[in-house]
Amino acid sequence: MAKLTFVGGIHPYDGKDLSKDKPIREVLPKGEMVYPLSQHIGAPAQAVVSKGDRVLAGQKIAESGGFVSAAVYASVSGTVKAIEPRRVVSGDMVMSIVLDNDGLYEETQMGELKPLEEMTREEILTAIKEAGIVGMGGAGFPTHVKLSPKEPDKIEYVIANCAECEPYLTSDYRRMLEEPEKLIGGMKVILRLFDNARGILAVEDNKPDCIALLRQLTKDEKRISVKELQTKYPQGGERTLIYATTGRKINSTMLPADVGCVVNNVDTMVAVYRAVVEGKPLTERIVTLTGDAMKDPCNYRIRIGMSYEELLEAAGGYRVQPEKVICGGPMMGMALFDLKVPTTKTSTALLALSKDEVSAMEPGPCINCGRCVEVCPGRVIPSRLADYAEHFDEEKFLENDGMECCECGCCSFICPAKRPLTQEIKSMRKILLAKKKKK
Q1: What is the pTM of this model?
Q2: Which ranges in the chain are annotated with CATH 3.40.50.11540?
Q3: Could you count the other beta carbons within 10 Å of the beta carbon of residue 325?
Q4: Calculated CA dihedral for residues 392, 394, 399, 400, nearest 10 degrees
Q5: Which of 1, 197, 224, 266 is buried most, with the most CB atoms less than 10 Å from its CB?
């Protein structure tokens, strides 16, 4: 039987063997904690604490600043040191709450929990919103908004993105192996919001142990199935995942709900379970520390707000001095200029590479080989779009479907001329999206 997949894509070295067989480790921060008020798409959260206030782990320190926004919670106990702009991974200065960690990790007491079976749809959505949950695969879209489509009865599929197609990353893999009941529990919570939907756990076939385990645990669940996907990047992209599992297509002007789908990644679904069933807000996540320059590649359960510098130190540091350090994976991650920046709800990995192969490449002229077209999951012509972007030809860029690029990086990876195709297209898309927002 053919594996479920999409047209295009690539097969880069995945690097997952470095960390996939090591159990998740707990790491507790000791230093200063920084909580940016913008850890999500939408309006920044608004601080509800002041300098000098003592807070407990699990206490709300910032409330959502609008419908498309998300609350922020303290992940440790301590005293509010400041509310001021702090540098984040992107290099931007973002208003943040700075906390002096007292090392006691005192937590707030949970209120009385209501059984899931007795909760209404509105109560479930409120619990998810109050917990400050956002898409934890990197996008950071507030989850309560995603789970509130205009016509919930038209949602037919709730898809758990268990593909984890980004090279090197293994946090979702370890989560599925070690805490599968929380993933399945999160799926059950979300299915209660959509009476006509079926749940799909979509897993790439390079994780046969996860597929077997999830099938065993869901064999009696009539509304949940496990689908095996072909291992290929970017199989876990929202558009490619929906097509592979349902055969339905969406473009840049559409939302998954437009074709009856809702997609959430593994960590997000676990966070939903913890919020609704356990009454816990989003204060922690799993992060992969890996790469050939890392001394001890592994997955760590971290408290959101600790710095990458402290996380690296707790993990044992580098084996050799890296030439490139990336926040996230090698395909869609962001190069780090400084480790003294905070982890956030969307932090997935810290990748340390001994060689910076990309910077060593010398781009040459396009040889019109068409390889970028063959691998593009968006079915556009990246070489042509990059030319339009270089010449700031916005009209031609839009005419040739430049906004359909998902910025996956496949074209830059495959290009024999080593042209930075994705970077050029991404820059133009950013300009056009900013203009559209301004209008």
Answers
A1: 0.95
A2: 131-276
A3: 22
A4: 40
A5: 266
The predicted structure's pLDDT at residue 2:
57
Tell me, what's the pLDDT at 113?
84
Q: Residue 342 gets which letter from DSSP?
A: B
Q: Torsion angle, CA of 235/241/243/245, rounded to 10 degrees?
A: 110
User: Do 272 and 328 touch, CB atoms closer than 8 A?
Assistant: no
Is 97's pLDDT higher than 90? yes
How far apart CA 82 and CA 60 sit, in angstroms, is: 16
Across 260-281, b (16+ Cβ under 10 Å) vs e yields bbbbbbbbbbbbbbbbbbebbb
Task: State residue 1's pLDDT score.
Answer: 44
- Write the burial class of residue 428 (CB in 10 Å: 0-12 exposed, 13-18 middle, 19+ buried): buried
Identify which of 257, 149, 266, 142 has the alpha carbon closest to the alpha carbon of residue 202.
Answer: 266
Cis bond upstream, residue 234 (ω within 30): yes
Task: Tell me how far CA of residue 304 lies from CA of 61, 122, 133, 385, in angstroms.
Answer: 13, 27, 12, 38
- Cα-only R_g, the chain: 21
DSSP states along 8-42: S-B-----GGGTTTS--EE----S-EEEES--SSS
Domain 131-276 in CATH 3.55.30.10: no
CB hemisphere CA count around 100 (13 angstroms): 10
Q: Which of 275, 277, 276, 319 has the alpha carbon at shortest distance from 297?
A: 319
Distance CA 37, CA 436 (A): 24
The rounded mean pLDDT for the chain is: 95
Q: What is the pLDDT of residue 415?
A: 97
Tens of pLDDT, residues 370-395: 999 999 999 999 999 999 999 999 99
CA 367 to chain centre: 35
